[in-house]
Amino acid sequence: MATTGRSANDLGTNFNTSFGAMTSALLMASLQAPTESPSHAQDSAIVSVNDLTTIEWVFAFVAVPMVSIPGLVGNVSSLIVLYRHGFKKTSNILLAALSVADACYLIGVNNIPAFMHEYSTGRGFHYSGTSCYVLYGLYRMYRLLELWGNWTSLTLPVLITIERLVAVYHPFKFPLIVTPRRTLVAVVISYLLWLPLNVYYFFLEDLVFVQQGGVIVGRIVPTRYYQDKVWYSVYLSVKKAAIILSEPIPILLVGIGCFMVGVKIRLAHAKRRKMMYFVSSVTNARGTPTFRTSWTLLLVCIVYSITIGTAFFLEMGISVDVSFTANIVLAAAIRLVKCIHSSCNFFIYIYINRNFQETYRSIFASWVRKHGHK
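Structure for G-protein coupled receptor, as requested:
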């Protein structure tokens, strides 16, 4: 982005309590309307500095990393195990795509350049021009990973639910309807679906250089596409559409799908039990690959509905009508809940899928033997 001659005052006092300097979700969730009075914005700034720094610091440097780092390790481990199993099974393709999206979000949510910008003395990048541009580029990369990973991981469970619906209701036609190639195409579309929104969000921020204490400091600031009243109304519409498309609608579809899959599995199991004469046969039936796969994916979707449903209701509480303190706390809680959502799938696989357990145990044992001889 080109260097501009704008000063901090030209950007209005709202920015100090709202946009590009904090970590991504906190920034977006706590935006204040450009039409609010300067005195209210200044009051919000005082509250954020005096009362919220500790809260932000605890969430940014303690709570989120404690959840996201184990989750990132788990998602990478899931990809390794799924690669060992191969991608001839459509369920493996979907789970791998979900692991990639979750890993991207967990990396992006720990936006180190944003922390450096927000929590340094006097706010901003206190480095040379080249270093500021490098840090800003890294900030944009983390931002992209967080946004794209979040939106994609919220829509992929819909594909997982559809795949399971076809598998349990049309088991004989399933190999013809749901093929690995079609599944891969659907996954690519799910990722590309959010590309225009990522491009739009890119133009909401810019890097400018301002005078601060006699030195030039690089600052991330909102552009006119957020500052102008007309463009701000566009931003609000886009943001609402993104929330609706990525949270309540997928949650509703996944919830209905999970119920239908669960009912069908129970009915099929009851019917199978009546046909069996020995208890051991029933036990073996529960251990079939189809049964394990269905319950694994079903549990993934149930946890998704609970965590993202919670995040959605928390987002409904964020408003300019409530205190700035409440908005910041709610935004931080939303990020933490979404980190939990993106971190727990690996543990679901380990808990419910025996093949996954055995493969992971084999990989871990091989790694220990390899490094134990050194």
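Confidence is low (pLDDT under 50) at residues 1-49, 277-287.
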